[in-house]
Design a protein that fits this description.
It is a single chain. The protein has 13 helices and no strands. α3 runs antiparallel to α13. The longest helix is centred in the last third of the chain and has 31 residues. The protein starts with 32 loop residues before the first helix and ends with a helix.
């Protein structure tokens, strides 16, 4: 991640005392955030092996009685980490132009490649009707899908039509557009001075959490409509960055956050998880062993793993429906997991990393 160059200042006779949390949450400190992003991507992949096959009794379902479904919370974790890092990127950046360019270059090239890949995989699953499927996607849908980060444009009657979870071409990809919108909100808030007035961010986060809890009641089965959820978790990461000098690094506080997770069975998860989950992620990332901090430090493949897993899982089940592969979620995960890692690596090596260098 990019960090500003340290400035050279004249020596002073004495330094002010460090504040309680100063240091451990700085963006230049070694951490395991890239490992956790990869873990979240793999968690989504694992859970979707059951969801796309419509299998009951997914092994991580035990979490639902406390903190909610595992895949949903993995995505929440992505937004928490993004809120922290993106806020830091804005506040430490040289200009709004450089910030926006960096965000577009980080998101769009990888998304565009995965979008086209997903369409080709769906065409492959359509068999002899592959050309009919591709032709059924209007030209404006290609444009809209690519430039508004909208994977739903690929969903046509022929896309994985016989699968247990039909027509969905790339399940995880829909969250990318929402994340990019969060990036733009940070730019807007930073431009008008909101990020310099932390109490305004606190109010926004409180409103987002309250709205998310309300949406959880009225829209329980349509998570993609519940945008307040993402605002709640993203703003939690933003607040942690803004108050990073005042947040202590404490094992006891981490234990308290773990205990609070069990209270989510009695109240809305949004009243606890944004704060408790945020602290636990960053405490764990800070205290992780060195080998975990090294994961993804130079090659961050988590974005690619997240983007490519969904269409591969659907392709597997398309062949399983035809009797060519076992209709089994464990086998689905065992086959798709290494393929997703490989494609994530290729995406980073030949698309995402060169795009970042081009931006510089």
């Amino acid at each position: 991640m990019d960090t500003p160059a340290p400035s050279v200042a004249a020596a002073s006779p004495a330094k002010p005392p460090a504040r309680p949390g100063a240091g451990w949450l700085e963006r230049d400190q070694p951490n395991a955030l890239n490992f956790f992003r990869l873990l979240f991507a793999v968690t989504v992949l694992f859970c979707h092996s059951w969801a796309f096959g419509r299998f009951p009794d997914m092994p991580l379902d035990f979490m639902a009685s406390t903190v909610g479904d595992a895949a949903g919370n993995a995505v929440n974790g992505f937004f928490i980490i993004s809120g922290f890092l993106i806020t830091g990127s804005w506040l430490s950046g040289r200009s709004a132009e450089s910030y926006l360019r960096a965000r577009v270059v980080r998101i769009w090239p990888g998304f565009a490649a995965a979008f086209i890949f997903s369409a080709l995989v769906a065409a492959l699953a359509a068999g002899p009707q592959w050309f009919t499927y591709l032709w059924s996607i209007p030209r404006q849908s290609w444009f809209t899908g690519l430039f508004t980060l909208n994977p739903f444009e690929l969903e046509r009657p022929l896309s994985f039509a016989q699968n247990p979870y039909p027509h969905t071409v790339n399940g995880p990809m829909w969250t990318i557009r929402i994340e990019f919108c969060c990036y733009m909100v940070v730019a807007l808030a930073g431009s008008v001075g909101v990020l310099r007035r932390r109490w305004l961010v606190v109010l926004f986060a409180a409103f987002a959490i309250a709205l998310a809890a309300y949406e959880q009641k009225i829209l329980p089965d349509v998570a993609w409509l519940r945008w307040a959820r993402f605002a709640a978790y993203f703003s939690a990461g933003t607040l942690l960055y803004l108050y990073r000098d005042s947040v202590p690094k404490s094992g006891w506080l981490a234990l308290l956050c773990v205990a609070l997770l069990f209270a989510t069975r009695y109240v809305s998860t949004y009243l606890i998880l944004p704060a408790a989950g945020t602290y636990l992620i960053f405490y764990a990332a800070s205290t992780a062993p060195a080998w975990l901090k090294a994961v993804g430090a130079k090659n961050d493949i988590s974005y690619g793993v997240y983007l490519y897993g969904g269409p591969l899982q659907q392709l597997y089940y398309a062949y399983a429906v035809k009797g060519l592969l076992p209709m089994n979620p464990w086998v689905n995960f065992a086959v798709v997991f290494p393929l997703s890692l490989g494609l994530g690596w290729l995406s980073w090596l030949y698309i995402e990393k060169p795009a970042k260098h081009w931006m510089r």
